[in-house]
Amino acid sequence: MSRAVFAILLAAVAGVACANEAAPTLSDPVVAKREVELASQLRCLVCQNQSIAESHAGLAVDLRNQLHEQIVAGKTDAEIVDYMTARYGDFVMYKPPFKPTTVLLWLGPALLLVIGVFVATRMVRARRAVASSVLTDQDHARAESLLAGAGKDARQP
Amino acid sequence: MKRKLFFLIPLVAFVALAAFLLRGLWLNPREVPSPLIGKPAPPFERPKLAAPGENLTNKDMLGQVWVLNVWASWCAPCREEHPVWNEFARKKQVPLVGLNYKDQDESASRWLRDLGNPYTVSIADRDGRVGIDFGVYGVPETFVIDRTGVIRFKHIGAMTSTVLQQKIVPLLQELGRS
């Protein structure tokens, strides 16, 4: 019981904590721009559906400070992203890297599209083959005999 | 006969998808696998909570298997897991180092006085830098580190006696033997 109440309280607090968009750290515009760009590509692990640019969680603030320091120290974007993934894993990147474990994630939709196009083409071809099949003389003769014989009997009262 | 089975493909695909989604219901999205497992623990040097003049570094812990527990007096689940650590400490199996994460020394010391101190030593990470190096994102977190300083296990969230008994204790025994 107390655990449930606690969980609800915690959820409420978390909601408040994540609610306001965080102010970027003030600095010169070039650094600030890179900082915001990088921060919006990185996931905040506390408020998982927010980037560290948006999140107001303590960790996001700390990580933004880290970004700032590293940009000022002259690190490249790739180096900074490496710093983050070395600690928090690929999950911190909103855009996952292309590697063996993510092949299905990246190519899955394209693969489904190819399969879909293949199946659709085959179905359309099959249907067209039925529609355009030409009747032979034999078929005509059989049809006529059917219409002449069986048809008459059926129509007579 | 063969053609008839093709109609089952959408059904099979649906069942497979449903199975994945069902599995997803029971996964905890907060448990993000750490890239640090199997890697050397990041170097650190932080003052001891009980003796702020003295520092503890990662090198001090080399040569022994130890447990690092990240805690803070402001962290409610830490309070929840605290009895588990008190119990663990009584057995004196391996050193239990507390990383007091983004806390105030006074509150932290009071917390330990009130609830008991299971830690062999606690170090104060006031700015949370060591926490970031360890990839901490949800306090409490627990790491098992081997003799060579390599992280072997990580648990996110409050430690339970089940996890301790089923995962950590056997791992400590295994690491202690080798």
Structural account:
The complex is a heterodimer of chains A (157) and B (178). Chain A has 157 residues and is mainly alpha-helical. Chain A folds into 2 domains: 2-97, Helicase, Ruva Protein, domain 3 (Orthogonal Bundle); 101-155, no CATH class. Helices cover 68% and strands 0% of the residues of chain A. Chain A has helices spanning 2-19, 29-41, 58-72, 77-88, 103-131, 137-155. The longest helix of chain A has 29 residues, at 103-131. The model of chain A is unreliable at 15-20 (pLDDT under 50). Chain B is an alpha/beta fold and 178 residues long. Chain B has a single domain (38-177), classed as Glutaredoxin (3-Layer(aba) Sandwich), CATH 3.40.30.10. Chain B has 6 helices and 7 strands, in the order H-H-E-E-E-H-E-H-E-H-E-E-H. In chain B, the strands form 2 sheets. A 5-stranded mixed beta sheet of chain B has the order 5-4-3-6-7. The mean pLDDT of chain B is 92. The interface between A and B is medium-sized, with 17 and 17 residues.
Q: Architecture of the largest domain in chain A, according to CATH?
A: Orthogonal Bundle
Whole-number radius of gyration of chain A?
A: 33 Å
The major beta sheet of chain A can be summarized as: none
User: What structural category do the secondary elements of chain A indicate?
Assistant: mainly alpha
Summarize the model shown.
The complex is a heterodimer of chains A (157) and B (178). Chain A is an all-alpha fold and 157 residues long.
Main features:
heterodimer; A: 157 residues; mainly alpha; Helicase, Ruva Protein, domain 3; B: alpha/beta; Glutaredoxin; five-stranded mixed sheet; two-stranded antiparallel sheet; 40% helix
Blueprint of the fold:
The complex is a heterodimer of chains A (157) and B (178).
Chain A lengths: L1 H18 L9 H13 L16 H15 L4 H12 L14 H29 L5 H19 L2
Helix pairs in contact in A: 2-3
Chain B lengths: L1 H5 L1 H18 L19 E3 L7 E3 L8 E6 L4 H15 L5 E6 L3 H11 L5 E5 L3 H5 L7 E5 L5 E6 L4 H17 L1
Parallel strand pairs in B: 3-4, 4-5
Antiparallel strand pairs in B: 1-2, 3-6, 6-7
